[in-house]
Amino acid sequence: MDTEPTMTRRQLVQRGVALAAASAVAAPAVGRSSAQAGPNAALGVGFIGCGGRAGSHMQTLHWLATDGGEKLRLAAFCDVYAPRLRRAAEAYGSTRTYADYRQLIEDPEVDIVCIATPDHLHAPQAIAALKANKHVYVEKPITHWRQIGLLKELARAAAVSGGVLQCGTQGMSCSAWEQARQLIADGAIGQPIHAEAGYFRVGDWGERGMPVDDPNVQPGPELDWKAFLGDSPSRPFSVDRFFRWRLFMDYAGGPVTDLYPHAFTPVVHMLGVTFPSSVVASGGIYRYPYELREVPDTFNLLIDYPEKITVALMGTQGNNHFGTGDAPVGSVGRSPVLRGWDGTLTFVGRNIVITPTEGSTRKPVTVPVRTGEDLVEFWKSLLNVVRTGQGAPASPMPLAYATQTALLMGMAAWRSGRTARFDRRTERIVV
Ligand SMILES: NC(=O)c1ccc[n+]([C@@H]2O[C@H](COP(=O)([O-])OP(=O)(O)OC[C@H]3O[C@@H](n4cnc5c(N)ncnc54)[C@H](O)[C@@H]3O)[C@@H](O)[C@H]2O)c1
Q: What are the start-end ranges of the E strands in 309-364?
């Protein structure tokens, strides 16, 4: 529901892919490879969650396997809602289908687990996959806002596992962020002091944006409600909670967890910061006061770092003006502005622009952005690390840990009405 409709479809169409294979596409019958696959082994990808976002990943990986020169198989599928599970497995010619994600993780045909379930299920499923030494692509947000302990556990599991983890902030495939990080590290703006980023869009992406496949469905053989609930509070079955889970605080958190991982991850990367010292937040349901909606549609954070840098992260789902007059770079929703003692780094069109601070004797600099956001390249960055054991994927766990900690501090601050602080020694959020 966030950035997925833009890049993937456009890029795959440009690459000549027939999307949404309605007819069965035979999965190549290749031999089994282990999670420590060699450079030439065919990698098996298993999908936990076969909803909207997973469809984009399936299309991308199918293209990579058939036209993109990657040795991989769409090996196995898991969903608690049988019609979606059947649809995906039929489209990609697989008979390896599961209602229980633990069985998919145990499947020896699966080397990489792609997790695209509702937010509250990401961390438990990713931890289980890493503990089984599988590689993981897990959608953002890497945890639900309530799962502060699980975030730390996930970071630990990723650090000790033989598997590689990539978080689904695909905007990190845009070269702009690494180019800007390098410029800042080389002193292009002097000591960074302030940054602005955000996500502005129109649309509630819940009540009106999420399809209800079957308004009369009931828990039973076709739908496992208990498995959907996972570790969230026990609730009686509700069609809205199941299909429109983004509206409910039990399973989602609104823009801070749904959209800001996209806008904020590049900022953390460019500044080279890790955990904040403090976060304050504001916002609420200001635009879409529907009966069902629990999550805010407007959310703002002020994030302070021990390096004496403040990041203002802002947004609303009630207005999509970007503020600078420029289209955003990649899918971040609003191009960031990074201010240093000696200059300011902005993104104008396809360029990184450095403007000297008033009184500075430095010259303005313009650097073209080399490559834009690309889900294919994003997946390839993971596949490359899995095959070679070298380097890190474009959005690795340490970056996701730092980013998500600040966002969870924002949610803690907003819910408590207090300043959230981070205790680095215990890696705990204190409000
Ligand atoms: N990176 C992006 O640009 C992007 C875009 C869209 C969505 N997302 C993320 O992807 C995730 C999924 O979003 P979506 O729009 O596809 O939602 P969706 O509701 O369309 O799909 C989720 C699927 O998970 C299934 N599911 C629920 N519980 C399960 C369980 N225990 N085991 C297996 N399957 C289970 C559901 O039946 C459903 O088919 C979200 O966390 C969202 O934030 C990311």
A: 309-316, 337-340, 343-348, 351-356
Q: How far is the CA of 393 from the centre of ligand 1 (A)?
A: 22
User: Which atom from ligand 1 is nearest to the alpha carbon of 227?
Assistant: 31
Omega into 398 within 30° of 0, i.e. cis? no
Tens of pLDDT along the chain (431 residues)?
444 433 343 444 344 333 333 222 222 222 233 445 566 779 999 999 999 999 999 999 999 999 999 999 999 999 999 999 999 999 999 999 999 999 999 999 999 999 999 999 999 999 999 999 999 999 999 999 999 999 999 999 999 999 999 999 999 999 999 999 999 999 999 999 999 999 988 887 776 778 899 999 999 999 999 999 999 999 999 999 999 999 999 999 999 999 999 999 999 999 999 999 999 999 999 999 888 899 999 999 999 999 999 999 999 999 887 655 455 565 556 789 999 999 999 998 889 999 999 988 889 999 999 999 999 999 999 999 999 999 999 999 999 999 999 999 999 999 999 999 999 999 999 99
CATH value at residue 36: 3.40.50.720
Strand duo 72-78 + 43-48: pairing: parallel
Beta bridge partners of 311: 195, 303
For residue 171 and ligand 1, the question of a CB distance below 6 A is answered with no
- 258, 284: one domain: yes
Question: For residue 313, which of 353, 348, 281 has the smallest C-alpha distance?
Answer: 281
Ligand 1 center–CA 300 separation, angstroms: 25
Same domain assignment for residues 9 and 116: yes
